[in-house]
Design brief:
The chain is of the alpha/beta class. The chain contains nine helices and six strands. Helix content is 36%, strand content 16%. The longest helix has 12 residues.
Amino acid sequence: MKNVAVMGGAFDPIHEDHVTVARLCLERGICDEVWFMPSPDRWDKTLNASPEDRFAMLELVTSNEPRFILSDLEIQQGDFRGSYVFLKGLKEKFPDVNFRLLVGADSYGNIPHWRDPLHFYGTEYNGHLLLRDIELIVFARNGYPKPDETAHLLKGYAPLHWLGAEEGFVGKYSSTQIRKDLWRNRGEKPAGLDPKVYRYIIENDLYRE
């Protein structure tokens, strides 16, 4: 069975840490491919670039690695339904693939509180189902601890893989900071932004405050 790491998110814009995590997953044999899945417009955060622009920026930095697969399946889904509903659909569509979800250490502790935005009321959480059914690849984020893998497994959750400093990943960049840098000085490429993506942003007049 092919192992695929799913890297979802806004990618608003994509930066070097996204690519570094994806390459490490391949180099360390955690997955055979990384599927980049940009989200549609979302209820839980304000996105600054359209799905089309975010997809185009991803295309610029993923096209030279055949094991990076760029997919618009979540955009085509229309409504943002959260990770569990989307991944369950992927498993049905690709039954011969073992999907592993890439997630930052800053998000890991909140996963039990994730839910389907179309069923948001009450306590209709599905994060515990995601933890049970989907393997995770958790990457380090500054200020957040490494998950306790033993405690994770004792709860009946699917296996967890870790990418931190010892594995070669030290995160430096954030899309939020890159946007702030662009607001302050559009004439200089922010650290962590691919030159091709920077040119696209300037040419398409994105990320103006």
